[in-house]
Amino acid sequence: MSVKVKLTGVQELQHKLKKNMDMTAVKKAVKLNGSEMSKTAKEYVPVDTGTLKRSIRLDIHNSGATAKVSANTDYAGYVEYGTRFQTPKLYMAGAFDKQKEKFKKDIDRLMK
Length: 112
Fold this sequence. Notes:
Blueprint: H1 10-20, H2 23-44, H3 51-55, E1 56-61, E2 66-71, H4 76-81, H5 91-111
Antiparallel strand pairs: 1-2
Helix pairs in contact: 2-5
């Protein structure tokens, strides 16, 4: 189970970025921020056997314009969101929250 985050306005942002700048810098920022988020998720994830931590990976899509960080075990969502028997351990959401402001700053800097 993977955690999904939906961002609205991505197509409009991509159109504006393509119009105003070189996409190479944007792709570099996407890859860097995705990599940092993946690293942070691995730092935040609780470790028992290490399987969940090792399953966290970064995939780059859309010719480098999209980064996807996911935990690829059957129980990843149970650890993230909790169950009636265990409290949530927001390793992926925590990593996203930490990274999103830096990503916004990086993109804002590129748009100036």
